[in-house]
Batch of 4 targets.
Target 1
Amino acid sequence: MKLRFYGVRGYVPTPDIQYLRYGGNTCCTVIYGDGGELVVLDSGTGFCFFGDDLLAGPHGRGDGELVLLITHTYWDHLLGLPFPGVVHLPGNRLHIYGPDSARGSLEIVYDGLLSPVYSPVYGLAHIGATHSFQAISTKPFAVGGLTIRALPLSRRMNSPIWAYRVEEGAASVVYITDVRYTDEQIWQTAVTFARDASLLIHSAPYTRDEEIEDYGHGRVEDAIDLALTAQVRQLSLFHHAPTRTDDELDALLAHYRADLAQRGVELVLDAATEGPLFDVPASIRHQPSAREVP
Amino acid sequence: MLAPGQTTLNAFLCRVWKMKAARAFILYTVVGVRAANEAVTMEVSIWGTRGSYPVARAEMLRYGGNTTCAAVRVGNTHIVLDAGTGLRGLGDALLSQPEPPRRIVLLITHTHWDHIIGFPFFTPLFEPHTRLEIYGLQRTQASLRTTIANALSDPLLPLGFEDLRADLHFHEINGDGVFALGDDVVVRTAQVNHPYRALGYRLESAQGTLCFIPDTGPFHTVLFGDERVAWNGTPATSRAELSALAQMRSDVLRLAADADWLIYDAQFTEEQYLRFPHWGHSSYSQALEIAEDAAVRHLLFFHHDPHRTDDELDREVAAQQLCTTKLRVHAAHEGMRLSRELPL
């Protein structure tokens, strides 16, 4: 299983030189299964560049397929979907999973996003690729050789926020974004869900010291605590604040890495970076039979 | 008792002081008045140039990756054109001034995402002293207020107008609008050729004239209205469509006539236009044709395609400049400031 970040920024894109080393496009992460499966986590503006890269393969010929997993429907996780050419090419197949909200199904939200007042696409009906929407549930399902698990972790107003876990052999990726640990139950659920993951991608735009109000995200310290408690191998901080420069992110990582080293704990800590394709490592203790996932 | 030398010194210092006071007075009256006059210039600055969606890419940073936004200041009148992601930087810049403007006018060409996604990141919205006057196209389908409110609120964002501390006022206008902003600026509008209709704006002042048309197709192939155009490769041929297109073209020419600066849709290469005439955008040569026919002084390519690199834009500007001696061709870039003294 390989992974590439196409968009790592939270809230709003940051097209400025101080932000480009880590990246300035909004949330989109792509998982490549060993059997050629494509699983995309969220469709922020990073999705546009992923779509461009697909043109060289079967998707460019109208013979491609991909699975899109949506955590929630805020702009920075959604707006990139209608732009890539491959989405408009008949023959391509999009399978979109995500939570319904009290305001309507995911399909209705996307349709509203593409309505003529906001988009020249004039609604979902005019997306050329075959597309299906499926309300996500906690029942695990397979995409080729990958196993997908999903869990509702949090809620903002009427919008539930889900987390995803994608597994293949000894490798597993857990993706948690826009989740605030407001009570012990959410925390315990997240710990169980992330248990023994090889890679935890966690939104953490601010540190505990920086936060002046509840922005609806876990803090950097929460993400690290979760990774340690769940015995995760590698933690990638994600959804970087639009004011966080590359140099600040370097300094932040150095500080928390030194802290981890001092405590003598083993955790690979990094910040999600757009561009490089990398192998998802095996988990520290790969014991599929003992895994507890709700 | 003072020594004679000291008296002389005091008299000398007194003379110097008087001279300084006189100089200060002269400076205050002459230069001050001049400075006051100079304050009424038309300052145009560009904050976002990209079309369709924002791009954070190294090879596009010079022209910029933020979506459409420009600012115009004439005296105390602060005008913003479109609310793409460029609006975020503008808001921070306005608030960092010693005396941030209290009244800001936002003129929206249309509400496609790339023209409104900067709105919730405009920091003056969270200042209780801001009064924001928002102008946009009147529609029977939904009010401008509802369109903006729905874009910001659950399930798309966790915001509502009640979270904004600024005082918002909405003004719904049409494609034949004329209205004054403050004492110094007259705004004119025209409907342009874009899916679901969009506006172009002309800002006239004694200090300069700017015309802003970020999204429009040309006026010979496809006529856009509220209905979706199902492109089947056949250009418009009916007499009604052709006459509507001709009318729209002449309205656009009148809107841009003799402007100092024309900021105009130039998303496409010629080859791209032929493939996507149903998208409602223009090519470089189509933009130049309008600019020449409207006799503007400076044409600024705008709404850059999200795939267009800085180097490609450099080449397009050079190539189009070779085709005309009547005006200067530029590509708008983030941070660009327009002055009337920009060399021709």
Target 2
Amino acid sequence: MRALSQGPVVDERALHAVLLLAVCFALYPVLWVVSLALSPSVHAVVPRAIPLPEAPSLDELSCDHFRQGTNLREWLFGRQLLNSILVSVRRR
Amino acid sequence: VLLVTCCGPLNIALHLAIGVSLALLLSRPRSSSRALYRVLLIMPWAVPSYVTALAWKGMFHRQFGAINAMLVALGVEPVSWFAQFSTAFAANVATNAWLGFPFMMVVTIGALAGIPKDLYEAAAVDGATPWQQFWHITLPMLQALAGPSVSLGTVWTFNQFNVIFLVSGGEPDGATEILVSEAYRWAFTRQAQYGYAAAYAVLIFGVLVLGTRSLSGSRRRRTREGAR
């Protein structure tokens, strides 16, 4: 009786192991990019196998990178966002 | 260039192997949390091309890349991935496999859902084992239903400009260029040789027409043989 009930449990575990491995393969590059975005600039170029920032920081997301000048019309991120919205609206 | 382009079947084989295997695992009636796995596994498909390129080019970087960090952790010497053809080609294939398997998985899940359950019930009544059911029902039905997606995948892979241009950049010395990236180079980086680029475009179109015609022809032949 015990042997019969153990079969599917082991099977289910193997199934989850394979699926988790596939999920790791699918998500690893995405997590690597996210960890790079959340790393301070000086740490971003440190080689690491585990895609987790050692000292999470929002430095790379600071406004300075997205802005060319102080004037709102020179705010690059805003211009690019507007362009993207216009292009996607036109495509509809 | 044509030789590298024609290595597309290797990519398609990987897309099919990974995509079909995952779809079969996800379509098992007993597997729980299927929806969550499905969402997570479709993720590569939702990622924009430039993010894919940023991720994979960075991961294969000689000094800072994650792949070399893993190799070093395992005690292996770091590899200059884009310094020789074999490793640069392998990097492109890995990136393309990552990009392509979710499509095959989604198509196969749809195809599996379209196989009538009566067939399995009848086979079970006749005493067929799950393995026999797979070989004699699932696989032939999948072949018929997934044929167009293989053609589509072949065309997409054949024209996979983003991976080549953004990840390997044709390195080393243009060895990993494919027809579409070579056409781009003729048009925009080699003194605007638009004539050559146009010739490449016509050539690509011709090769794709011939390829898809022969694929659909062989599929039709197999279907006819199966019906006999």
Target 3
Amino acid sequence: MVDEASFDSLTTPHIPTMVRIAAVLVGQAYAEDAVQEALLRAWQARETLRTSSAIRPWLLRITVNLCHDWQRGRFGLEGKMTEPLDVATNIARLASFANDPGSTNHAAFLDLRREIDRLPDEYRLIIVLRYYVGLDASEIGAALQLPSPTVRTRLRRGLDRLRQQLDKPFSVMEGTR
Amino acid sequence: MIFHTPDHASLPSAFEEFLIADGATWRDQLTINVTEIQKQFHEQRAHLQQEEIPSTIRLPSAHTHITRHRLIWGGIVALLTCLIAISFSTIPMHTPSLRSSPPPLPQEIIENPLAAIGSMSPQDAFTKSVTLLPCNGVAARTLSITWLAASFDYGVAYILADCTNLLKDPRSVSALLPFGKTLSGEWKIMRGSIIPQSPNSRMAPFPDHSDQSAVYGPAYNVTVPVWLSLPGNGYLGALMPADAQQYHDALAYWVSQQYIFITGIFAQAPVRPSCAQSMTINNYPGWICQQNGLAFVTLLLSGNKTFFFAGNAPRDQIIEDAAQAQAHLSELFPH
């Protein structure tokens, strides 16, 4: 049984990563709240953690699951009558971070983030977890409950797609969506 | 607009470096206050340890055998408890004036008050903490939430869900959900009612969560008062009488095949929404809004009380009915 002090010492090193995950999933404004709640969930479920060495992927998975729950609440319930089904109930939708306060002033970076926001969710999630949160493929796989090869495949395809998007004139892409 | 980065099309590694650099910039500029997060977490943990764990929190299933055993034993205990309760219960719990209702499916509404901690309005808290799966436990095709009236701590949400192809009957589900901050500071659905589509439909109040035991809030059948001239006929009405606990709120609605009218009162001053157009009724200041096919009048009464009247009839009809209802408040919501 993990006591309070042990739990705190085990979880503290991973909090920054949890915040980054939450920031890309639910937005910076909600990230710290989401992590507080993720820690609560982890505390409640601490008996299910078999070894302390597995705590990082376990915490990251809890954070991702919690953020998906929040997305379901935020985006699902804010859906209006006029929105189509795929928008109103899209639980995998990510928070847009193209306009985050942390954005660089460099126009190219802003364009890059905008185009990342436009990627299909299955690619976007993996790209932001890899390059913005800083997770490797095995950690992403653990967090998303996907095999590492699948993560690598999606990452490669996502990068290809992102490159294609960035090479196209913006107006053309707008017209094809 | 064409995006240009040096050689990114021809050199994947350079493109990846570009992503890595932007990721590093983003991480560097993201403010992370670990101490504050831990402080808040410790407070919430201490709070949790004094209370029952909310039923909406689902634990991760890393090693589900432990949870499964608990569920099995929990199920056996619950079954035995039910059997004992049934064998000893000889007096029906119905009050003649109350409509008995089947319990709603538990998965239709999921509340997670922890997610609403720090929310500054009922709308924000509701969005963060409540998940509605109104179509027999499935998310609606579309869902509209109209806040008929709200203060900083309390609001009345009218939910309209399109369940086409998800439910045979009814095809849409509407509900009236008073939502507010409890005395302990938690945001919760106070009580509520699924509104029937027609007189033949069921009326199933949501559980009253105030005592954590899923007891229904009372809902009385009421007819349309003679002084209230609603269009058409064939109305089914319900009254959720005044709650003496906190907001002293009372609600009533009348629904026909074509129309719905909802009125209510609560003991807090209203917050003016962005859609508000100022007006005065019976010398009380207020406003009217139109959203999602509904028009709703809100009035600030003496003693910082809020009165509202809403419906899907034309705006002028709503104003006229609001004036009538306000003039007959004591008759409408007797204490």
Target 4
Amino acid sequence: MSLRHDAFIYDSDDTFVTEMSAHLQAGLAAGAHAVAITTRHNLGLLRESAEADSDNVSYVDRDEWYGQPARVLADFDRVLRDAEAAGAPCVYAIGEVRFGTTPREWDRWTAYEATIDRALAGRRLKVICPYDERVLPAAVLDGACATHKHVITDTRRPSPSHADAAAIVRAHTPAPEPLPQLRTLQPPPGAHELRELLAAEMAAHDVPAAEAHDMLLAAGEVFANAGRHGGGATSLRVGRVGIHFVCEIADAGSGLDYPLVGYVPPRAAQACGVGLWVARQTTSALELLHPDGGGLTVRLWT
Amino acid sequence: VTSFVRHGLSRRRKVLLLHATDDVDAFALRLADGDDDDIATALDSGQLGYRGTSFTGDMSWRLTDPPGCEQLGEYEQCLAEILGDDAVVLLCQYDDGARADVTAAHDVDVASELAPIGRCGYLAAAFTGAGRTVRLARELDFEAAATVAAVIDERRAAPICLDLADLDFVDVAGLRALRGTNGHPVTISSASDAVRRLIALVGWDSDPAVELRFGYAV
């Protein structure tokens, strides 16, 4: 089997329990690992239903699971690799995304849903994403139909409005702010010098050590890519924005207009795209800017 | 000195004259003591003295990254400052095509004690445990990756064991280089926090070709 990623739009507790218990049961019957990530209320409902309350199901509070989209993909990848190592044939999962309360958050997690088919393509995962029609805004429910090939309501059907993932991510990614408060620095000639420079800047801004190390890792990967694909870094901007330290590296290459880059978990012997995967994992956000003059600018946030 | 020079010239010898002066012509005239025809001819033919020096050296030894080679750039710069004028021309030959041929020398370059490796001087390496373990310290990034991959490729006949406890920084290309150019299986006997972090991020902790011999808590 390969990836199956369905949306399930429900409007009552009973519908939720009936459909999701059946999914977990099917997984257990197939010898799969079963993971239920949902609201605390729904976790209670599942545990009460005799069929689904099993030691073989992992129950996870979705408020603890859905933190930063790229890291959620890494967590799913981890679950899949652990299951594989344990000899399980596949993973059955329930993933009820925490969409938050603001349009910006709705966009962010709709974009995340769009990345799954690409990020976990070919993986042995059957995941159903429940959408609670009673509380979610129409924009999110529309998004569910665009980001899933199949939607379950009373039955499972192909979604008529399923759309291209890259287009969805583009449409749901806010335009980067200009951030004129960032300071422009001369890009150093080497990676070691870049790390020294950034380490000094971050120390001056009291960035905690672990976050600073992660930023050095992310910036190093972007810097390496600029050298490899963009003819070298042409501009470096740094500074504090709110609680974040921001580092922006620009090159004058041919650019990169693929918003899903860096969302695919690296597989053994994979040569490309691992650097941006690491950069997305080690920052709270990574923005791709496409300046009018060409080239690519990558903005990293601690 | 004059008679020595004249004697040499009369026997059609090339006379090499080293003297602390900037002006070879003026010195030669003084040497000729007015009788300058022979001297002028000897100067023109190159038999006596030199208008300048052209020097060229094979620098491909640098490609083996021997200890201390990180100071090469500084050395070259000092050289340029000392020479200054155009009386001396230096051509240093750097043949990158020779890289593949000289990587065999890596075995002797990486010492039993930590020694600089790579062109940039912020990575050090050593062979320990009777040469069975490669120990790396300080920073391993994409700029040193090709050198490290060559060292690993050299030793791929035997199982490769890595001691990475003192590696303060490693990036994706650097980590990948630890498995050579073709992704050899490796054993990592110890690892710093930076190494552990990246191993988890790229999924080496569940790659069967990578054996981790240190406690791993995700």
